[in-house]
Known about the structure:
Blueprint: E1 8-9, E2 12-13, H1 16-22, H2 24-36, H3 38-54, H4 56-59, H5 65-77, H6 81-84, H7 100-114, H8 117-128, H9 133-140, H10 144-162, H11 166-169, E3 177-181, E4 187-191
Antiparallel strand pairs: 1-2, 3-4
Amino acid sequence: xxxxxxxxxxxxxxxxxxxxxxxxxxxxxxxxxxxxxxxxxxxxxxxxxxxxxxxxxxxxxxxxxxxxxxxxxxxxxxxxxxxxxxxxxxxxxxxxxxxxxxxxxxxxxxxxxxxxxxxxxxxxxxxxxxxxxxxxxxxxxxxxxxxxxxxxxxxxxxxxxxxxxxxxxxxxxxxxxxxxxxxxxxxxxxxxxxxxxxxxxxxx
Length: 204
């Protein structure tokens, strides 16, 4: 199911592909980053959207184009898995700072990285970005019951690893602050509103 997307940006009407990129494309990107980490997932999403553009006439007629593009992204990510295994899924702590909030974030990201990929994706998509179980199930090509089970098991594992209670855990969307290494090698700190930004995406 496509998520709500704007009909125009800055007063300019969107064509169908642009609307797909801003709607379902964002969901695909977030899922790929959850599965494969910030760098590999973002690159895989870019490659998948390039293929989606090339195949748009066929893609636009599909009942589940987001799921199809997600699977393309998975194929694009696989060649990078050996390279990615030498590095963390998400950015490590900045050794130049002694920020308690940043340390807690790093702990959360490390714990997320220890989850099975399907649990990690389900937890991040449902708990961080607020997608309905139905949309996540469609994207990952599993049942809603499977999504519910993955979220439950993933959250329970996070609570165990992080040693927090149900009340203390809260909604993990508040914790997603990431540092992303830009193309020039610098580090850019970003705090994203879950309703407008995404892990692995530029936030305005």
